[in-house]
Amino acid sequence: MLADDQYLVREGIRRLLETSGEVEIAAVSDDLDSLLAAVDAETPDVVVTDIRMPPGETDEGIQAAIRLRESHPQIGVVVLSQYATPSYALALLEGGCEGRAYLLKERVKDLDQLVAAIRAVAEGGSVMDPKVVDALVAANARADDSPLNELTPRERDVLREMAEGKNNAAIAESLVLTERSVEKVIHSIFMKFGLTWEDAIHKRVKAVVLYLAESS
Fold this sequence. Notes:
The protein has helices at 7-18, 32-42, 60-71, 86-92, 111-122, 130-141, 153-163, 168-175, 179-193, 201-215; strands spanning 2-3, 28-29, 46-50, 76-81, 100-104, 126-128. It is an alpha/beta fold. The longest helix has 15 residues, at 179-193.
């Protein structure tokens, strides 16, 4: 389902998604209350929501994601925002990053990227906008004692790709590396962060984001 209080934006996104052939819009809403009511009525696989809507025009999209974590934990949520502020993304992921994505609205014009985020959260994965990841890394790297300062340029590149929800194959393709090399870099990152190696690929995003959140 799709939630945005601006009619033209909402309809534009709906028509764009419908052209993908992969997404069926079960319901639309324009405020927090109607969003939650529609979820109860339709039980969609994924909610795509603007970050700010009535009644408060503050962070209703994040509020919805937090409440749905309790009432409908199986539903994925993609929050669309014009703000690259790390605090919004961290608030979204505070209860866990599984099934959650934070994308800047400028990504909407890239249908493949938007559909990929919807697919990822439907499968329990997570996606963070690259610009938000950059802001998180930059903010935390300013601390003298941050382990981020120990990362090599290659490790920083892989960290950003990881936080965007990419798997090893996608990271390897993006950075022109072998998958084995990507595995070694990821292991090195986790060792420097003092984090236990995770076999489940999607869990590594949670580990990275939680680490960044604790340091912010």
